[in-house]
Design brief:
The structure is a homodimer of 236-residue chains.
Chain A lengths: L2 H15 L11 H8 L3 H13 L3 E4 L3 E4 L4 H12 L12 E12 L2 H7 L6 E11 L2 E11 L8 H5 L2 H8 L4 E12 L2 H6 L7 E11 L4 E10 L5 E6 L1
Antiparallel strand pairs in A: 1-2, 3-4, 4-5, 5-8, 6-7, 7-8
Helix pairs in contact in A: 1-3, 2-3
Chain A binds a DNA duplex (19 and 19 nucleotides) through helix 3.
Chain lengths: 236, 236
Amino acid sequence: MTKYMQIANDIRNNIVKGILKPNDQLPFEKDLCEKYDASKMTVKKALDILVTQGLIVKRRGSGTFVKSISNADMNKLVISNQFRGLTALYSNQKVSSEVLTFEVVPSSEIVRNKLQLENEDFVYNILRVRYVDGAPTVMEHMYMPIALIPGLKRKNATESIYSYIEGDLGYKIQSSHRAISVRKSNELEQSKLKLEVNDPVAVVEQVAYLENGVAFEYSISVHRYDNFLFETVIVI
Amino acid sequence: MTKYMQIANDIRNNIVKGILKPNDQLPFEKDLCEKYDASKMTVKKALDILVTQGLIVKRRGSGTFVKSISNADMNKLVISNQFRGLTALYSNQKVSSEVLTFEVVPSSEIVRNKLQLENEDFVYNILRVRYVDGAPTVMEHMYMPIALIPGLKRKNATESIYSYIEGDLGYKIQSSHRAISVRKSNELEQSKLKLEVNDPVAVVEQVAYLENGVAFEYSISVHRYDNFLFETVIVI
DNA sequence: AAGTGGTCTAGACCACATT
DNA sequence: ATGTGGTCTAGACCACTTC
């Protein structure tokens, strides 16, 4: 654990515990340097983390302040920053999968473009429905280059593909690029996600990258509209 | 313009121009220090910006690499990082507004909670439909404390409320916290956004903050589903 | 063993807000 | 004028990858 992480965590805890309340002014950077026996750059880095997480604001010439946020919203922020994105929303619930398609196919032009593949390259074509506590939640359509992800079996798709990639293959995931859109559900989605005829869906198109900058997954995830929520903080 | 911004911009331009191609290795930090006559910390900060923007990846012990991204996707990344969020999606088009409601009301409990107000505080209650090139696009429901935003008139809502806040009042907006969800449209939305009975909508709930950490706006924006797209980069 | 990026420092100077 | 946070440096040492 780095020093700037320790400082950021400590201050975050003080905010969560209410030792630092909304609109409170934080100690000056120079005082935090003394308190944590750290240099200015290190303290600044710690505070900058809390700024991007949406907890505090900094004003040159004035000081640093806790944002005016309710306890409930503050807790949500802290939780959603511990786990990234949507991933661990269902951490306490049972996640299972029904694999509809698991095959290896030549890459289409769209997939080649997203994954930056050559014409001849083959990809896994995986379609599955994911259940949370037995309720259908997402229909995922994934493409992954077989050259990059060797040895993937239908069984892995039934469980967690990511744990195969990170655990068995020892890869590390660096980032993902997502685009969120909305549309009406089609018949397959209605049947698989137990939706009514005119129910909408949230569509998350994603390209995921490994540590070395190589795209390893292009996926389209179709979410039931009633349990989809994407939260984000934008700092200008 | 800071030195780290100049360095980041220069490298970004090299990527856009194709001087640095997908999967290319960047010069080592130590060489970039020489090239730009900058210290290691400054070069690192420049590169870290490009990492959070999704353009490059860094690997300790190996080097820094351009992500494996198609030209089209790379250009989209660069553009969406120049303007933040959804705001300037319609920069070349005519934006106009139909104001349905413009009144001052006592704050409800939800609004008080989001904006951290006291019981007695009054807020603007503004409902408007925004048109892009004459086509209805978003229905916005905004609440803002009158104490914080004095002198707002119906006329401002017809044009740009943000230009009143940033221009006339001289405030600076620091950040916004957004939650995106999906649902079916209701009758009012169908009529105002020219939607069919069973068309869906994308709902963006937002709390926006000023430089001093004070929440000045709570809004619910209901978007036509066919022109809503939210793109984001998540770095783990 | 050599070289990469990551962290951290002590101190200089700058830009901005308040007094 | 004072004090805040912002930038930048030169150099030390660490963690990791590659050879």
